Amino acid sequence: MRQSGRGRVPTPASPPAPADPQRAASVRAIAEQLAGIRGPLLPILHEVVAAHGYVHDDDVVVVADVLNLSRADVHGAVTFYHDFRRTPPPAHRVALCRGEACQARGAETVHAVAADRWSGSADVEVGEVFCLGLCAVGPAGTVDGTLHAGLTPQRLDAATSGWSP
Ligand code: FES
């Protein structure tokens, strides 16, 4: 039987060079700082999002390298949880509760108004959450991270005044 490569074990390919070395260094520092804790992957990804706004594909490579995981393992965690954005965040974000209690209090109307107002906007993202613990005073949501209860289209207007449509 003939073996190719004269019996040498191929060395794994080195990771591709990151597009932004400064960001890669920052992500590596975050990963190395948290690598020793129990279950470090999710805390590292949260810190990357806090520091850089989202998880870039290059960040996946760096985190996988530091934790000695496959890129598929890290990519799987990033894509499984909605908290880990994969694109730069917009300037503003509205997240409206679509939970049943809020639906019963008119959340669908507020969501429809918001989705219509900012559809196609690069500056505003309309998202959804499922229960913010404000069920009795819904519809609830967040506007740039600030909790709002009793949302109506008019209250949403007031909370987002100055935003371009
Ligand atoms: S269902 Fe909307 S806050 Fe609970």
From TrEMBL:
Record key words, sorted: Iron, Iron-sulfur, Metal-binding
Xref: InterPro entries: NADP_DH_HndA-like, NuoE_N, Thioredoxin-like_sf
Coiled-coil region: none
Gene3D superfamilies in UniProt: Glutaredoxin, NADH-quinone oxidoreductase subunit E
Domain of life: Bacteria
Region (Disordered) residue spans: 1-24
SUPFAM superfamilies: Thioredoxin-like (SSF52833)
Xref: PANTHER family: BIFURCATING [FEFE] HYDROGENASE GAMMA SUBUNIT, NADH-QUINONE OXIDOREDUCTASE, E SUBUNIT
Protein name: Formate dehydrogenase subunit gamma
